[in-house]
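Example 9 (inverse folding). The structure is encoded as follows.
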């Protein structure tokens, strides 16, 4: 009886061991397959990353090349603008030169005063050309003195202008696109002293009396 039981146990044990061995083999195979699958996935991912890196590098190089071309074009435009920017103004000035020569020629053949008239017309033409190119003459007479646009050369007593007003223009000033190109040289008014006014009035009366005598 005991022998039969032992035999059954041995058979069960062998069966269990066989099953365990088979299960272990299956597990090893599955693990191996999973590892191979992961390795394949990693290889695919690396290839994809390398491909994306190459594409990104190519796009970056193209972008850098385009930026360099744009920079060169802008620099070329800047140089040409600096070199030829005054060409329209130069073309207009040539017209003034032609008119000046005509005025000089006419003056040699006609009556006195024609040169003055011709020069006056040329002056107006020059001012018109300058204004066309946003160069405008300041008109400060009677305005309050402004150090941003005017340069005071002297003070002058005046009854016609208030203190601080510009009463005389020595040299015209100009602006270029609202920026000061050259300040106007001016004389600034100040009120006369009452004593000076009284003395002037007395002198006028004395002179009048002398004339009457």
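The amino acid assigned to each position is listed next.
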């Amino acid at each position: 009886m005991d022998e039969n039981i032992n035999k059954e146990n041995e058979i069960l044990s062998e069966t269990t061991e066989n099953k365990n061995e088979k299960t272990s083999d299956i597990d090893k195979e599955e693990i191996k397959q999973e590892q191979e699958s992961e390795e394949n996935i990693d290889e695919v991912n690396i290839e994809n990353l390398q491909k994306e890196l190459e594409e990104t590098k190519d796009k970056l190089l193209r972008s850098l090349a385009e930026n360099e071309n744009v920079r060169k074009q802008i620099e070329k435009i800047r140089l040409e603008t600096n070199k030829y920017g005054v060409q329209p103004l130069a073309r207009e000035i040539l017209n003034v030169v032609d008119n000046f020569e005509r005025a000089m020629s006419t003056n040699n053949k006609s009556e006195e005063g024609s040169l003055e008239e011709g020069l006056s017309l040329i002056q107006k033409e020059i001012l018109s050309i300058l204004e066309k190119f946003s160069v405008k003459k300041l008109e400060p007479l009677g305005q309050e003195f402004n150090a941003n646009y005017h340069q005071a050369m002297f003070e002058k007593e005046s009854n016609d202008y208030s203190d601080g007003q510009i009463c005389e223009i020595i040299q015209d000033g100009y602006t270029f696109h609202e920026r000061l190109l050259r300040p106007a040289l001016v004389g600034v008014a100040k009120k006369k002293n009452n004593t000076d006014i009284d003395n002037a009035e007395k002198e006028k009366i004395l002179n009048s009396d002398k004339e009457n005598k």
